[in-house]
Specification:
heterodimer; A: 284 residues; Immunoglobulin-like; 2 domains; four-stranded antiparallel β-sheet; four-stranded mixed β-sheet; B: 212 residues; alpha/beta; five-stranded mixed β-sheet; two-stranded antiparallel ribbon; 6 helices; 9 strands
């Protein structure tokens, strides 16, 4: 995404933040405590292109659903797609999670309004003018303190556009997809190493534009690697140190793991993602 | 006791106290028990008002099951009769199955004794006892995080399994036949004098609704 688009999205998010708070009651979720909708960024499919879809979740106040790693309890939202021939989806591009704490147990997920973005590739030979039937079976667990599992099958029927008439954005969801791009942790050029120090897994990050440690939080996508308590985060010279407790369920470590670092600020949460090679000496 | 020995004892007392205090502070708030080590003992009242302790069952294998009747993950395993079937199997093998509710008063799923007995009758539970742990002492001693969260303790009081009831984290009953039932597997292996092949797994479910 270009800097320009990001800046524009930011203004857009700030403005709708205000509007959103006024309009919130209109979006009140149904009796299931979260409303769930399949949305497409464009009004049609473009042959040979990759385009954005998403699951729009609007949570009732105090209720949340889960990140790919839900933490001490909970379940991540899952999607099972039924697609026209040749159309393929990628996995959910998980937005930056929030940390929820209840009674000393930690969960990672989303409250308020969030889009779980999914990139969809359309085959080059999709017939212009034909209708594409896209269906998704979504399953989620929504919790306050108590939890309720939910499931919904959603469909979209979109025309396939011609090459010389590319599909327009769907104006209903422009803001949602702009915000989704902002909620995505940014790729970084940081170099990450990790080491086991007793019952800790300590990640050292070096590289351009490392944030200060103040207010940072960090999350690991893979389960059974680090525990779910907030990590100890500090700067040591040019390095950012993220010091996790080792998971009590630590088993066979992956070759690499995915770390997401988040930084709340007045302008919204920023976040970065970095792949960490798992050091052999960190084995139990 | 000689004077020297007495002096020594007096001299050592404060130091031991200090070490004990330091250990108490150094230990994590809710340290998890360790598979292969003695399981924490407890003393807690069951739904019928009887005091239950782990020590009382020395010589028998014990299963602990964390429960919250209103949790959908618990509902999955009771709705499909998976939990009751395993409770009945355990009972027939002389295994003591104790269901524990660490939900604090006022939190979802908390039961008093009468309500717990009614729940067990309604779902056809076959556990030996249903423990009311409203202050969360047993739950914290075992670092129980979810409902369900399962522990298997052998006849010598050693923890042999802790983790999920099975291998597929979901609220779908249809997943039960496809999943490895870790508690059933551990009990069979212990009975045969074997090592438990999966001694820990990550539990899945609702958070235990502790009061503090």
């Amino acid at each position: 995404m270009t800097r320009n688009l990001r800046a524009r999205s930011f203004i857009c998010a700030a403005v709708t933040g205000l509007i959103g708070s006024l309009a919130a009651p209109l979006h009140a979720a149904d009796a299931d405590h979260v409303s769930v909708e399949l949305i497409s960024e464009h009004v049609a499919l473009a042959p040979g292109q990759s385009q954005q879809f998403g699951i729009l979740l609007r949570h009732e106040p105090d209720w949340h659903t889960y990140w790919i790693n839900p933490g001490d309890s909970g379940l991540p939202t899952t999607l099972a797609w039924t697609l026209p021939p040749g159309v393929k989806t990628q996995d959910i591009a998980w937005p930056m999670p929030k940390r929820f704490e209840v009674g000393g147990l930690y969960n990672f997920g989303y409250d308020g309004e969030v889009v779980l973005p999914v990139a969809m590739s359309v085959p080059a030979d999709a017939a212009p003018g034909s209708k594409a039937h896209i269906a998704v079976d979504a399953k989620w667990l929504v919790c306050r303190e108590e939890c309720i599992p939910g499931r919904k099958t959603m469909t979209l029927d979109l025309p396939v556009a011609t090459k010389d008439n590319p599909p327009k954005p769907d104006g209903r969801w422009t803001m949602q997809f702009s915000r989704a791009r902002l909620a995505e942790p940014q790729a970084t050029a940081w170099k990450a190493t990790n080491a086991a120090e007793g019952d800790r897994i300590v990640v050292t990050l070096r590289g351009p534009s490392l944030p200060n440690a103040d207010g940072l939080d960090a999350f690991v996508e893979q389960k059974k690697l680090v525990d779910n308590k907030p990590p100890r985060i500090r700067r040591e010279g040019d390095a950012l140190i993220v010091d996790f407790g080792k998971s009590e369920y630590f088993g066979t470590p992956p070759e690499t793991f995915d770390l997401v670092v988040t930084q709340p600020s007045a302008a919204g949460v920023r976040g970065w993602r970095v792949q960490v090679p798992f050091a052999a000496n960190a084995a139990p | 006791m000689t004077k020297k020995a007495m002096d020594l004892e007096i001299a050592m007392t404060p130091r031991i106290t200090l070490i004990a205090a330091a250990l108490a502070f150094a230990a994590p708030a809710f340290a998890a028990p360790v598979v292969g080590k003695p399981a924490p003992d407890f003393s807690v009242t069951d739904a019928s008002g009887k005091t239950q302790s782990l020590a009382a069952y020395k010589g028998r294998t014990v299963v602990l099951e964390w429960n919250n009747p209103e949790c959908p993950f618990v509902g999955k395993h009771y709705g499909a009769k998976n939990m009751q079937a395993q409770q009945a199997e355990a009972a027939s093998e002389g295994v003591v199955w104790l269901t524990v509710n660490s939900g604090a008063s006022g939190k979802q799923g908390h039961l008093d004794g009468a309500a717990a007995n009614a729940y067990v009758a309604k779902v056809g539970g076959k556990e030996a006892a249903y423990l009311i742990d409203g202050d969360g002492k047993v739950g914290h001693a075992y670092d129980a995080k979810t409902t369900p969260h399962m522990y298997v303790i052998d006849k010598d009081g050693v923890l042999r399994y802790m983790g999920g009831i099975d291998s597929i984290a979901s609220t779908d009953k249809e997943d039960i036949p496809k999943a490895t039932q870790y508690v059933r597997q551990a009990l069979a292996e212990i009975k045969d004098g074997k090592a438990v092949s999966v001694p820990t797994s990550e539990p899945y479910g609702c958070s235990v609704k502790y009061g503090s």
